[in-house]
Structures are given as structure tokens and as C-alpha cells.
Design brief:
The chain is of the alpha/beta class. Helix content is 42%, strand content 20%. The protein has 2 domains: 198 residues, Bordetella uptake gene, domain 1 (D-Maltodextrin-Binding Protein, domain 2); 99 residues, D-Maltodextrin-Binding Protein, domain 2. Helix 2 links the parallel strand 1 and strand 2. It is globular. The protein starts with a helix and ends in a 5-residue tail after the last helix. 48% of the residues are buried.
């Protein structure tokens, strides 16, 4: 699978977008003084407790402080997040329904699902990128003896067949697991769950052998010692896990994958509302206390203009279309 150069270029692009976000959005203040004048719903298209839920709640707290109105989280899981995002795109374009959309909704699901309930390029408008996070290769401490990725491969090949969990078919944890199995030559069965909140108990019970899942969901269980982190999928070691090697350092080359997210609104939402939300995310992304909370949770906060988010999503589609095709995954 030829992903090296596109994945490296996506990282450089995302870094530049993050930097540009500091200068984003001017001239929008005061153009829509009435929004928000009542509670705003943020649809999280995954179950409570997963990385998207955890990080969105941090942002919702700050948005409440900035705008003086509640930003209420609504978890609408299912179909790889399509159900939740379809709820957003099908809502009135008045700024009172926001989606916490991820890489899957922008760049993966349209190549994975035979039928989509929304058009990723036309039915939703990103206000700003919100974060990125790597996946982490984890094993349950009580059931898998490996302390390094090399030891895991030896153990897995001796075992004959292993299993890995993910939040669902076509997610970056699923595609990461598929890529890892192909690259390393192990026999690995995919076990899809509805989210990390279901994957983690299954791993701790010994029903699933490993996961390459979003770091933000696994920080607490790694810190507890119940799971062991063997590698991260970021290009460099992650700041909060400095002793954990990258996949490249652990022996799996050209394996740089990060998940990213953005706030989206229905097409037709007035530009002043989009700009006010984008400006708020820009402000939040500069706050040291929030940056620290995100790092502790396993992510890096981002901000961007709507245009930069659209451009980044377009580049991502080119990459993940090929990755999904190589995985052979398809959902009717």
C-alpha cells in the first residue's frame, strides 16, 4: 500500500493549517448579534466515553463560557457516525445544531458505505478543524505478555490467530489494524464494537488481543496499568507518552496515521454564524489550559478557517479513498 508520501504531506498540511488558524477569521464579529440566544446542540456521532465525546465536551464547556449559552452534547451513534452527522445535515441551518465530525465523515465513509445519508462535500460546512490525535497500539496487560511490538509479533505468530477491536468497520482504528496485519504478516480477525467504551472491557476480559485505537480513549486505562501501549501512529513520539515508540521506531515503516475532527453545520447556515464559531475555536485553541487538557486526554487542539478545513478535507479524501480500497472493506 503506497501511503508514505501522501501521509507525510498530510501531516505538513495539517501543521500549516494549525498555524494559520491563529490568524483566522476576521471581520465577522457583530454581523449576527442574535446567535446564540438559546441552547445549542452539539451532536457527537459516537457513544459517550470515546475520544470524540471526551474532547467535544471540553470544547462545549468553553463555548458555553464564551457565548453565555449551554452547548448541549447529544450522542447519536451508529453506522460509523453517519446517523449522527445525518442528524446535523438534516437540521435547520440556523446554527443551533452543530456536528462534531471526524475524518471518517469527511474522507472515509463515502468510500466505505454503499448508501450515504448525506453528501460529505455538499451537505455540511466545516467552521474549523478542532483536533488531531494518533492511534495507539495497545494490549491487555493480563492477557498478552508482549512488552514491545516485536515481542507481540512473535507471540501472535506463535498463537496462530489473534483478534483486534475497533469502533467499527472503516474507522481509522479498523483500517490501522488491517494495515498492520498486512504489513506484519499476522493472521488477525477484526472485531467491531460501537466504540472504545465497549472495546476496552472486551480487551480487559481477554476476548480481544489488541487494538490500534484513538489514544484519547485509552489514556486512563494505560495509566492504570491494565493496558500496555506498544507504539503510537504519529510521526514523532507523542508528548504525553515520551517512552512509547512510533510505529516506525517499533519496526513498522511508513505507518503515520492521525485522526482529526471539525465542527460542522448544515449547508445554508449563515456565514456570520460559521465565522463566530470558527473565531471561538481559534480563541480556545490559544488557551494554555485547554491545550494541556487536550494533551492529557491524548490529542492536540487545532483551529482553522472554514476554507482551510475544506481544503484539508479534500486532500484527505484522496488519501483515504485508496486506503479503504486496499482494505477491501465495504458496508451495505
Amino acid at each position: 500500500m503506497q501511503t508514505r508520501h501522501p501521509l507525510q504531506s498530510r501531516r505538513k498540511f495539517l501543521t500549516s493549517v494549525a498555524a494559520a488558524g491563529v490568524m483566522a477569521v476576521s471581520g465577522a464579529r457583530g454581523e449576527d448579534s442574535h446567535w446564540p440566544d438559546r441552547p445549542v446542540r452539539i451532536v457527537v456521532p459516537y457513544p459517550a466515553g470515546g475520544s470524540t465525546d471526551v474532547l467535544t465536551r471540553i470544547l462545549a464547556e468553553r463555548l458555553k463560557d464564551i457565548f453565555g449559552q449551554p452547548f448541549v452534547i447529544e450522542n447519536r451513534a451508529g453506522a460509523g457516525g453517519n446517523i449522527g452527522i445525518a442528524t446535523v445535515t438534516g437540521s435547520p441551518p440556523d446554527g443551533y445544531t452543530i456536528g462534531s465530525a471526524t475524518i471518517g465523515h469527511f474522507a472515509i465513509n463515502q468510500f466505505l458505505y454503499t448508501k450515504m445519508p448525506y453528501d460529505a462535500e455538499h451537505d455540511m460546512i466545516p467552521a474549523s478543524l478542532t483536533w488531531e490525535l494518533p492511534n495507539v497500539f495497545v494490549v491487555p496487560t493480563d492477557h498478552v505478555p508482549a512488552k514491545t511490538l516485536s515481542e507481540f509479533l512473535t507471540w501472535a505468530k506463535q498463537k496462530g490467530q489473534v483478534s483486534f477491536g475497533s469502533p467499527g468497520v472503516g474507522t481509522t482504528p479498523h483500517l490501522s489494524g488491517v494495515m498492520f496485519a498486512k504489513r506484519s504478516g499476522i493472521d488477525a480477525i477484526h472485531v467491531p464494537f460501537r466504540g472504545a467504551a465497549q472495546t476496552i472491557p472486551a480487551m480487559l476480559a481477554g476476548d480481544v488481543n489488541f487494538a490500534i485505537d484513538n489514544l484519547a480513549s485509552y489514556i486512563p486505562v494505560i495509566q492504570s496499568g491494565k493496558m500496555r501501549a506498544l507504539a503510537v501512529t504519529s510521526a514523532e513520539r507523542w508528548p504525553t507518552l515520551p517512552d512509547i515508540p512510533t510505529m516506525g521506531e517499533a519496526g513498522i515503516k511508513d505507518f503515520v496515521i492521525t485522526s482529526w475532527a471539525a465542527f460542522v453545520l448544515p449547508a445554508g447556515t449563515p456565514r456570520p454564524i460559521i465565522d463566530k464559531l470558527s473565531a471561538a475555536q481559534r480563541q480556545i485553541a490559544t488557551e494554555s489550559s485547554v491545550k494541556e487538557r487536550f494533551l492529557i486526554a491524548g490529542a492536540r487542539i487545532l483551529s482553522s478557517t472554514p476554507e482551510a478545513a475544506l481544503a484539508f478535507a479534500a486532500k484527505e479524501r484522496m488519501i483515504w479513498k485508496d486506503v479503504v480500497a486496499a482494505s477491501g472493506a465495504k458496508v451495505d
